[in-house]
Amino acid sequence: MKTIGLVLGCLFFVANVSAMDLWAGRTFSGDQEAKAKCGDFCKGAQMIWNGNWTHYTTKNGRKEAVCGCDGQAGDVRMGRTMSGDQEAGKLCPGACASRALNWNRNWTHYADPSGKGEEAVCGCN
Questions:
Q1: What DSSP letter does each residue of 37-99 carry, written as one string?
Q2: pLDDT at position 19
């Protein structure tokens, strides 16, 4: 299993290629706040929030929220839905190429657990 470590602004996360836990850098007051924040944290990493989150106590005793994100390194979120394979075949190659990647002919729709709707994701590598 391949491990990826990235720094994004003040966020740090470590992941395998299919899922990652994204550190929020702060605590959440509960499920409502996690529902409001985790989707955006995951989206910033081109991932989809899987509805999971928890608080983790760091080695120095500080409590931080961690959001569960799904996707694969190279997946590109489209910011919209797609009608099917034909539309994906037209849009995904360009979306992947904009990140210097190639479309791997996979795509899907993810439903955002925060209730913000569905979004298409193109598989790129």
A1: HHHHHHHHTT-EEEEEEEEEE-TTS-EEEEEEEE--TT-EE-SS---SHHHHHHHHHHHHHTT
A2: 64
Which two tokens mark 75? 């997946």
Half-sphere exposure of 125 (CA within 13 A, CB side): 8
Quick one: 87 and 36 in the same domain? no
pLDDT digits (tens, 9 = 90+) for 79-96: 889 999 999 999 999 988
Selection from 2-11, 48-57, 70-79 with the highest mean pLDDT: 48-57
Vertex 109: Cα angle to 105 and 110 (nearest 5): 130
Range of the domain at 92: 76-124
